[in-house]
Amino acid sequence: MENLVLIFISCVLLAGPGAADRLVTIQAGPLVRTEGSHATIWCNVTGYRGAVVQDFEWSLYLASAPEREIRVVSTRHGDYSYAAYSSRVAAGDIYVERLSADAVVLHISRLQARDQGLFECYTPNTDGEYRGSYNAKTNLTVIPDTLSVTSTAQTLNKVEGDSLQLTCDVSRQTQQHTHLSVGWYLRSEAGAPPQDLLTLSRDFVLRAGGPYKQRFASGDLRLDKTGSTAYKLTVHRLQPADQGLLYCEAAEWIQDPDRSWYAMTRKQSEKTVLKIQPAEKDFSIQVSTERRAYTAGEPLELRCSIDAQNVQERYFSVSWVFSSSQVAVVGPNAVPVLVGDYVQREATGQLTVRKESPSVYLLKLQSLRPEDTGKYTCRVTERERTLTGDFIDRSKRSRNVQITVQPLRSNMTVSLSSNSTEVEEGRTIQLTCEAHSVLDKATGLSVTWRWADGKGGAKQDLAALDGEGVAKPGPTYSERAAYGEIRVERIGPSAFLLAVHNSVPGDEGQYECAVSEWVQGTNRSWEKMGEKSATKSMSVKAVESSFSVSASSRKPSVTYGDSFDLQCIVKPRHNPRVPAAVTWRFKSSEGAGDAPFQDLVTFSHDGTLQWSKASLGMGARTTVDRTGNVSNFRLSISRAGPGESGTYRCLAQLWRRTYNRTWAKVAERTSNPLGINVVKPAPKLRLHQSNQSVVLVEDGRVQINCSILAQTSAESQHTVLWFARRGAPDEAGGPSEGGEAQAELLLKINHNSAFEYGAYAEEERLQSRVQAERLSAQLHRLTLHRAEAADSGTYFCLVEEWLPDPSGAWYLLAREASGFTRVVVKQPEVRLQVEETESNVTVQESSSFRLGCSIPSQSSRESRFSVSWYVARAGRDGAEDCVFSIGHDAVFGNGNCSPSEAPGPDSRLRFERTTSDLYSLTVQQARSGDEGNYSCLVEEWLLNPRKAWYRLAASRSGVTVVAVLPQVSTLMSVVCSNESLFYFVFFYPFPIFGLLLIAVLLVRYKARGSSKSQEGKNGAPLLWIKEPHLNYSPTCLDPPTLGLHPGSVE
Fold it and tell me: Does the keyword Repeat belong to this entry (predicted)?
């Protein structure tokens, strides 16, 4: 335990009183202890703030579950322990001993194997903020107790002078490196402490007990190791004092990491009873006293000592003789029998005769008289019973002791001392007057206290104390004495005290103590033996001369939400008779420069606390206290805000309490001004600022993240502003010159979750397509749906960090911009391809030819096409004429050119779209003017996210060269060129020929003129073709089908 205390004191000294951060220190491990032993672990904390008394919580972490905490015991909570330890804590087997306010020792009685593990010492936070370490850990290893100490139990009878040998076997099976200490001990009597005979320490050093050092040095006492586990004790020339119980005790020691040795376990062997028969029965007598010359009234003590063996088992009678006259007899039963006049003196308490111990007898005369001068003798008689049953008396007389008693003479001297030659005003003047060389303690002493101003003035009686202890104040000081400011008392047999409380400068001067010595005569009357006096000068220091006040603070500048302390130190130190009243005053930095200070709180001189109206705004955030000596007044303000920024000072007043219990102000001082600046916390806001690029196709979705990497406080709230810069970004991916100034606000989410669009979103009509999300407290996302090429630009977020001040108002602390996101929205990739194969077509005049336009590849499945056919005729210098055009909206003539021949019933053109990628144009009744180089121009159109059509690409097909041959008119060509005529000529004539002939004849017969008008030039019936018609629906989503259908023959 002494080692623990030394280690603890060393840790405290090393830590020092000026440690800035909290530091918890625990006994270094690993600590190895045995099962069933008593284990201790110390722990202390330094550098703390707040509470003076620190609490400690002990926990255990087992190796099988190193992350699981098992609570053991705490100084703060009685129900802290888990079930595994609650019963042992309640039984007192586990407890915490507090060494000081910040140091404890954990005690574990009867250590168990399950106690092995990592012990943690934790101190709850009392600092107002987390600084330093709050816990420390050490490892405790519990090993089996394998120490074995054995010695044969026996009873030995020896004779004085014989030799003795005893063997003790000591063994252990510990795997750790340990040392053994082995010792032999003797217990002479039951209940008596054991005596150390001889010990082999853990350092292999032999040490003998105090009474046996001489015998060990002479070789009569030995301890030898005769085997690996055997230790033999040898005692030569036994003495009667060696009789008793002998046993062997061994301890197993281990060295802790701090280099100190610890006794893990200690065991004793069986005891051997040793009896020693004395070699002889003679005895000797000696009378002793302090001195032989006394003064009347002093006490006399005479002791008769018997030196013999086994005194307790022998019977002695002692007689006291004075000048051949017997005074008293004390028999073996220890009952005194007095003789003559001594009976009366014993009855009045003036004489005492008793047996102090088995071998010491006392004769005491309380108050010597001159007639007690003479020779004193002690006579001792031993009665012994022989083997025959008879008694034999052996007597011896001591030498005469001459006692001389002198009559009383006063040799008294007086000394006067004080607590200090100079005291502060209001404190107590304390003088001690002590008389020396007084004749007897029972002699009466009286004292008189006097005072003089030290300037030649007359002495004045302060107070007097007679021999019976009755105090009487002097006439000048009777009123102050009545109020208890003048006090005299006897603090010892020959010592007296004068105390002048609540001293004032007028109490300065010379003080005198006069002591009179009185002796009671035979008639019980008191006689004055003499008087002696002593003087001493005292000075009283006025409080105004040393009264000062100063204000200080360790934190002239604090952060919002932090705490700060202001110290008002009043000198001199606190005097309860002249207490100080302290008022803290404050002037806000937000007020005018000539604004007066306002009182916050006052410590009055009578110990009350008074709060002013100006402190109500601070509420429960302000605490005040003072130190034990009440000379240091502290004002503590927690969770400081801008309202606490300003100038502080303290006003101190000294008050003196007069003897009639009224108060009077003595002095007043004002401290230095103390400026406290409450500033915003240093911003720690940090955003992800790497630039990135996003490239996508129109109608896609853009997601931009705004990641907050660090913030100042867990209470921080963020306002997120999303900005966009029009136009294509520069090559670096960020905005060009102008930066943020050219960016426009897209939307804003305030720290209170309010949402609003910026001018950019309204101008670009993005409200329906833009979305802002808060995925987590540190991650915000901007999503732009159905992106279009106009959305290309640079985007970034601007985060504002807001914090609440102690009053609950939010303030802007920091602003930080993220990295830039370069967004490029592209139109779909152009994959338009038109068949470019060139061909030659030769047709006869009046026949038809077909022009195809095939689109093997397109950019999008949603594409629409505008198709136009052009012809380049010979002799036009490359100029092209528009033949036919159909727009992407399926409207004829709404393409990229205006055809020279308008569509209609009379048009020779027939347009067809057989599949989505195959268009054809048929030119009927070819003419010579239709010759030329034909090609089709295809334009690809797409619908943008705003539902507006735009041209994506254009491509031209290969050239088709058309040649028209002139027509030779024959009957066969006429018939074959007309399908209806062909059928009419070759199929229909046979069944109707007869009827037709009859009809023609009848018609010619009845109306020759009419039939002539219906005949052609060649006399044959005229066949004609109806005009072509066009089926067209302007609302159809597919391109219209232009069909030129043959007419019917009438």
Answer: yes
Rounded alpha-carbon distances, angstroms, from residue 36 to 29, 39, 59, 253, 267: 20, 9, 20, 15, 12
1-11 pLDDT, tens per residue? Answer: 445 444 444 44
State the Cα angle at 162 between 158 and 165, rounded to 5°: 85
**How do beta strands 821-826 and 692-697 pair?**
parallel
The CA distance from 1005 to 33, in Å, is 152
DSSP type of residue 54: P
Query: Residue 707 carries which side chain, given as an amino acid letter?
Result: S
What number of CA atoms fall less than 13 Å from residue 194's CA on the CB side?
14
Q: How far is CA 90 from CA 69, 71, 73, 78, 85, in A?
A: 20, 14, 10, 9, 9
Which pTM was predicted?
A: 0.41
Q: What is the DSSP letter of 386?
A: -
pLDDT in tens, 579-592: 888 888 888 877 66
pLDDT score of 443: 66
User: Are 549 and 485 in contact, with CB atoms under 8 Å apart?
Assistant: no
For the record, the structure tokens of 448 come out as 């008189």
Q: How far apart are CA 25 and CA 300, in angstroms?
A: 60
DSSP letters spanning 884-945: EEE-TTS-BT-SSS--SS--STT--EEEEEEETTEEEEEE-S--GGG-EEEEEEEEEEEE-T
Any idea how long the chain is? 1050
SS (H, E, C) 527-578: EEEEEEEEEEEEEEECHHHCCEEEEECCCCEEECCCCEEEEEEEECCCECCE
Burial code (b: 16+ CB inside 10 Å, e: under 16) for 230-260 equals: ebebebeebbbebbbbbbbbbbbbbebeeee
**Contact between 428 and 421 (Cβ < 8 Å):** no
**How far does CA 505 lie from the centroid of its chain?**
54
Provide the strand spans (E) within 201-260.
206-208, 221-225, 230-235, 244-255
Q: Read off the pLDDT of residues 361-383 as tens digits, 9 standing for 90 and up.
A: 999 998 888 888 999 999 999 88
Q: What is the DSSP letter of 712?
A: S
Q: What φ, ψ does residue 825 adopt, rounded to 5°?
A: -105, 115
pLDDT mean over 784-795: 85
Dump pLDDT digits (tens) for 765-779.
677 788 888 888 889
Q: Dihedral, CA atoms, 775, 781, 785, 787, nearest 10 degrees?
A: -160
